[in-house]
Amino acid sequence: MLPHQIELLSPARDADIGIEAVNHGADAVYIGGPGFGARANAANPVHDIERLVRHAHRYHARVFVTLNTILRDDELEPARRLAWQLHAIGVDALIVQDMGLLELDLPPIELHASTQCDIRTPAKARFLQDVGFSQIVLARELSLPQIAAIDQALGPRDAPGRAVLEYFIHGALCVAYSGQCYISHATTGRSANRGDCSQACRLPWDVLDGQGRLIARDKHVLSMKDNNQSANLRALIDAGVRSFKIEGRYKDMAYVKNITAHYRRLLDAILEERPDLAPSSSGRCTYTFTPDPGQNFNRDFTDYFTHGRQIDIGAFDSPKNPGRPIGWLVRVAADHLEIETDDPHTELLNGDGLCCFDARNQLLGLQTNRVQRLGPGSAGGVRWRIEPKDPIDTYRSLRRGTVVNRNRSVAWERLLARPSAERRIDLWLRLHADGDTLVLTATDADGFRGEATLPGPWGLAQDPQSQPQRLRQGLDRLGETIFAAADITIDLPAPWFVPASRLNALRRAALDNLMAAREGGRPRGQRRPEVQPPVPYPDDVLTYLGNVYNHKARDFYARHGVRVIDAAFESHEERGEVSLMITKHCVRYSLSLCPKQAKGVTGVQGTVRAEPLTIVQGDQRFTLRFDCKPCEMHVIGRLQPHVVRQAQRMQQEQPLRFYQRRPVNPPSGARCGTSASTD
Predict the structure, then answer these.
(1) From 538's CA, which of 37, 292, 471, 614 has a CA 20 to 30 Å away?
(2) Can you give 151-180 as a three-state secondary structure string?
(3) What is the number of other CB atoms lying within 10 angstroms of the CB of residue 361?
(4) Is 394 part of any domain?
(5) According to the model, what pLDDT value does residue 149 have?
């Protein structure tokens, strides 16, 4: 990417969704390969990714593949081979977490530092730039001044080797710093750093104070609302962000279409205001729908820490989609409910999803089996009869006047299930003569040119006055192409008659040559060389938080001056209590129990302290400790014995190699990870 280019980066669960992301305005798409991606259930075969690459490259859009899990020693060679396969089919970049990959014979492909690298400081970002990363995915928790500080630390934006800053602008939020969450592995053996998170953060918890008193019951205190930076795009650009990333490699087609189109429109409006900026790919999009982020699954929205700490960032009542208010409950009858909508234009359809909060503030879902319009309501809306799919007894606790939300619209889903966007590149066509030879020149909005000729001689048309228009109509038949005619010029010495079949062939030949010119002129990134001599890592000690799971990663950090390198949490060397989550989110703050909130409040100041809290869910119990200097929260716990036993059994059945710092006595018949001294 050039320093003045802005990139909209969309997710793809599969190639078909990726193709629609491009059609709806994505400048780049990221997708999981057949393995080693941080979304274990979003894998794709190489041949499907190749299909996406071919489509994206027509618009000079890019395709990135996630290779962003931490790897065991036995996985390094398969990952290296996969990298070469992806390079061979034209993939533009690999998104990487494990630094062991940088010690391998990788193809000359761009490397992007995953959000799993936990990039929060200027020093860390500068280090990753200096070791050869072309693009850096910043932590979601950063504020605008922090982003600007990182941007400044990377040097001039037009300097050779300067990395691009990438930032998540929409979608689900992990409560922990990415790459710094081990609670799933500690309790279930499923590692978030290896693409298999159990999502403990979405569970309901009881919160207890130091004396065991209940502060909150069954609250989803680790569940965040969804990210939405729609109002902050200009400020993010000014802070240095150039790649705007949408979360959602598990999301469906409708989500990707809608959210991509939403941010395409917002970014295009900014580009219209800023002639110094340009999109990083080609073409303009038109849509058959009006994008609306509220129509897709969301937990309500927050812009998180972009403008500093805010109290209302959590989806504490429910991690589900609360939807949008459409009316209120009028009656619960023996076999149906009746509701009244606020807006007389609101239409309900069979299959719509409704929900409301009951007396305990629990979200209660209702899928409609049959809806019937009853007529005008009492307050200017419309009264509806609702027959739910589930037994009516499910809703007996609801009371008249309860607000009703809609969280699934069948009409919206049908709209997005159809073709919903076109992406076209402006084209200028000129038909002229060279002697008695027809010459068609096609020039696109990016300045690429294709030409084709058709030898004569040519007779005169029977209707000379209408012939130029007929030629324009023939040349304007671009429906199956990626182009739209901005202008067609006919510059012939006489009203020659050109048969439609020969004009079609001339047009196709010129466009084929134009597409070949576009492909030949498409920029392709290269892996950037490391700064020499090797730059030192910002710290000379790495704890388990460094996620070093193979010996090549250990060698990488040793080569960059790290003296003590502990093994990843997944190596099971941390048996005592440790931080299983490190978060910018603070439960004390969200419950209005933070000492900083009490500062200056008469009668309260000095009585509120950042003492530990406890969260409990079933037989799981964790301590919340608060580090007020960086304003962070740590969820403290330990590796569960059953996880260790499970790993030992698996190791006996299928010995695996991974990095361990401390010498171990492997179970009988097992071949555990070997260790090299790093002190």
Answers:
(1) 37
(2) HHHCCCCCCCCCCEEEEEEEECCCCEEEEE
(3) 11
(4) yes
(5) 98
